[in-house]
């Protein structure tokens, strides 16, 4: 494991311990990370006890098809938005049966940004079945750096959610 992966692997291990202690499962719904959160989680031996499913829904059509994100949201607020990641969390929970979920959508770059949503703009949402939180991030760096920071923030937020803190506050 390289030094870049160590903090993420440590977060995933802590998440697994916390989920196992609660007897709970987690699911992920990912766009800009392309399955990176699920990959980090499944690096941990025994993750099948607490990782239910990962959805990689890169296109808007798949966000609608797999996660039931309303098509109208894409025209009204865009894929990189609070509304879409919150719908992705709810859809992933409904499809997987997992209590805990995180969802991400963003502009990892190097292209695709706009004045309103420049490269590095990422929305992350977290839910536990009754509570739903989301936050907009502006991550610096190249595509790999944006994706890595997104995975790390999603895992940190899940850990906060499990101890009943607001994951969007940190």
UniProtKB/TrEMBL annotation:
Signal peptide as annotated in the record? none
Task: Read off the InterPro entries from this record.
Answer: CinA-like_C, CinA_C
Q: Which residues form the CinA C-terminal domain?
A: 11-161
Q: What is this protein called?
A: Nicotinamide-nucleotide amidase
